[in-house]
Amino acid sequence: MHVQEWLETVPAVAVYALVGVVIGLESLGIPLPGEIILVSSALLASQHGDIDPVILGACATTGAIVGDSIGYAIGRKGGRPLLAWLGGKFPGHFSEGHIATAERSFEKWGMWAVFFGRFVALLRIFAGPLAGVLRMPYWKFLIANVFGGILWAGGTTAVIYYVGIVAESWLKRFSWLGLVAAVLVGVTSMLVLKRKARKAAAQRPAAEPEPVPVAD
């Protein structure tokens, strides 16, 4: 079942909780589809009045900030052995190559890697734990974590919500034009194919008569 179709079957409170928990666990370091859940929920909010986009964005932001903070604490306590253990459990996400890429980003950008990491799937999983492993000062991490979480979770919710409203309104207003356009495209395609078929048949050389066998 598609994510959005499944979300339509659960109450609004469950959607808020699901978004907060999934994004929190993803930010903590567990590879889950947090962005997919958030986008699907925001789109659902634009189509159903039961889901409040403000509450949805607040839950997503809270999950992102709290999850990243817990990930930071775990990474600071677990250190390098934690990354090795995660690599064994989730080799597709915590491979040595991915960890090396994330480390280079942190070395180059520092706290900005935490901030902009929200918008990159790989860094979104790594940001909290890796910042703790590398012992980034907590005040720097917290600033980047809070502002990054607000901008990513709140901003994504707002953008998808308003895009969904505009798209739904546009489709309702111009649905008949879409139907007419589809019919015209279909008829035109059929006429073009028929014309090409007739042209190909006219250009095909006449078949030579089969030779008559000669009597012995």
Contiguous low-pLDDT stretches (5 residues minimum) are 174-179, 210-216
N- to C-terminal distance: 75 Å
Percentage of residues in helical conformation: over 70%
| Assembly of the depicted chains | single chain
Largest sheet: none
Strand-residue proportion: under 5%
Average residue-wise pLDDT? 76
Structural class: mainly alpha
The coarse overall form would be globular
Radius of gyration: 28 Å
Helices and strands, in order, run as HHHHHHHH
Number of helices: 8
Number of strands: 0
Write a structural description:
- By secondary structure, the protein is an all-alpha fold.
- The chain has helices at 3-7, 12-28, 34-47, 53-89, 96-109, 111-117, 121-133, 138-203.
- The longest helix has 66 residues, at 138-203.
- It is globular, with a radius of gyration of 28 Å.
- The relative contact order is 0.12.
